[in-house]
Amino acid sequence: MNERCSRKIFCERLGSIPVYSRRTRRMEHRLKEIGYQLGGQAGAYLASLLGMPVSDTTLIRILKATETMSFITPKVLGVDDWSLKKGQTYGTILVDLEKQQPIELLPDREAEILATWLKTHPGVEIISRDRASCYSEGAKEGAPDAIQIADRWHLLKNLGDALKRMMEKQHAELRMAAKALATKQQQQKIEDIMPDAVTGPAVSLLSPTAQRAVVFQEVKSLLAQGYSSRVIARQLKIGRNTVNRYRNFEHYPAKSRPKSQQSTVLPFREYLAKRWQDGERNIKQLWREIKKQGYQGSLGSVYRFFENIPKDADAVPLPELEVKNWTPRKVQFLLSKKEQDINMEEQNFLNLFFEICPQAKKARGMALSFHTIFEKKDAKALPDWILQAKDSGIAALKNFATGLESDYAAVEAAATYHWSNGQVEGQVNRLKLIKRQMYGRAGFELLRKRVVNHYASG
222 — phi, psi (to 5°)? Predict the structure, then answer.
């Protein structure tokens, strides 16, 4: 510096621009917010549209340079796991349920990790969690005075799983109830077509061809669910070759009747067609009339005749028996539904199924009462429900009740307090969205900053 020089130059630092920086603080903050919301590539594209051109790598570098925000220890904490790589690497998300915001991501879901965090952040009074033993043990070790609450949704799901295991052992009963319902529906259709016809078991009205068509429908339904030919053959009591043959057809391959085989009703064809045109719709009465004329065949042959009667006789064919497939999973949901949420067909099926399997009716009553306990927050009724489940004679419910006893304090709290893991599940869903936006660059630290810092900076 030359003190004798008469020229003096003075420059004041710009308050909005840090030293040696290429961006203003305001622009840095905007880019950071865009990075939190959209990540690298999508964030860079939006920034360029807003007149702030920047590369995706630069956005990620800005996020990585930001320190992870810290929060005040919440009184009500929600805990759940999430997958960084499904089936391989899992972490834990912690959510402040009162403020409804995530406050931390932990790199694992072991009990020690949660216990360590709770010890270094004292003050948690209530912990809402799923029924994983690792969180139960970690919460007990890290915050022994905190109240643990088992998530209600997981409790109801565990009950549903128990009912499903029960239904998986009732395949024969489910098929019997499905056929009984289909028979009842077909009988109603027959009565609509022929009001004066004598009612009776609809299955007896089916020709052997129609009965084979019913089996074909069942085979196609089970094949669509992914069952093997061996399992289907054993369940339907048919040959595996038949199952494999049906696999190649979209519709039932009806057999053509040999020309030499003629119905015993044909000699009385004209008489029956005339009586039908005259308005006689009671097939049993028609059978009696032709029997007096020398007919020696069965009533079923007469029904089959009207099924194939020429169109010019204005006869309506008998409806086919369509057996709907009621899977264990679907019936499991029905057992937990309230009556006002069940349609007429479902109620008819349940009524028939309960006649065949009385234990299912008992299971439904137990399921509805379990739902009521948590809807009405009636924790006092929980011990009696557990005793009834253990004495019900239903193995699946007994095992479920034993599991409730092992975590009884948390289950009782779920039937007492209004807190649940619903908010945590929502944050896990948001975390998954952020992770997928990041493609292959979703490292744990970067993901942690995007999930946690977004709320702190906003």
Answer: -70, -35
Per-residue confidence at 314, pLDDT binned at 50, 70, 90? very low
Average pLDDT score over residue span 130-159? 92
List the structure tokens of 458.
């906003």
Question: pTM for the whole thing?
Answer: 0.65
Which pLDDT belongs to residue 34? Answer: 86
Question: Tens digits of per-residue pLDDT, 223-250?
Answer: 888 888 888 887 777 888 888 888 888 7
